[in-house]
Amino acid sequence: MNPEKPKNNPLLEIIFNVALPSWLLMKFSGPESLGVVLGLITALAFPIGYAIYDFIRTREANLISVFGFFSILLTGGIALFELNVQWLAIKEASIPALISVFVIASGLYGKPLIAKILLNESIFKVDMVYNRLEELGKTDEFIKSMSFANKLLALTFVFSSIMNYLLAKWLVTSPAGTVMFNEELGHMTLMSYPVIAIPSMLMLVGLFVYVSKVIKGLTGYKFSELMIEQ
């Protein structure tokens, strides 16, 4: 038997990637505490440290984590080199935009990312699905449905890109390298969860429901019948 893959803890992810960095940036960036540079470095250390910890624990790195890691480094670079604040909005929009391009490219090469996410062979009996589709002659119809779902997945990242840009333009207006910039950056990080992350997760849930209905409609299988006992 394969060893069980360690599960992620959503509460810890929120604490280390959102809550703690935001709190540190907003409360400890002043000259009377950590200061601008040390406050920023300390805040960014938490999500970077958690990403390294998660990689050591699971021995896996996913695309989202890699993009997130570079996003943090770019944010730190913009602040430490005191670049024009406009670059922050561009950076915030570019990461999800690049992911959306990757998602679309995966569909063009016949390996849609949506299938890898929702039809994971370690969780579902994927062979049962494909065998039934082949028996019923509905493989092409399934491929078309997955292609459509993959485009919807790309749109969720386009939504994230647009909202990231607007949120950065709206909330972060002070020059990089200042106390106010750090505080506004912390506020933006905190606000990104309810404004961007939660709607994006709801979109993914909707995609999951859509794919499950497609599979049931084409094969007759329910997702519960396809799940591998863990």
Account of the 3D structure:
This protein is mainly α and 230 residues long. The protein is 77% helix and 0% strand. It is built from nine helices and no strands. The chain has helices at 10-27, 36-58, 63-80, 86-108, 113-118, 126-136, 139-171, 179-219, 223-226. The longest helix has 41 residues, at 179-219. The chain is elongated. The model has no long low-confidence stretch (mean pLDDT 82).
Topology of helices and strands:
Blueprint: H1 10-27, H2 36-58, H3 63-80, H4 86-108, H5 113-118, H6 126-136, H7 139-171, H8 179-219, H9 223-226
Strand percentage? under 5%
Q: What is the number of E strands?
A: 0
- Helix/strand/pairing category: mainly alpha
Return Rg in Å.
21 Å
Rounded mean pLDDT score: 82
Largest sheet: none
- Detail the poorly predicted runs: none
Fraction of residues in H or I helices: over 70%
Distance between the termini: 10 Å
Number of helices: 9
User: What series of H and E elements makes up the topology?
Assistant: HHHHHHHHH
Shape: elongated
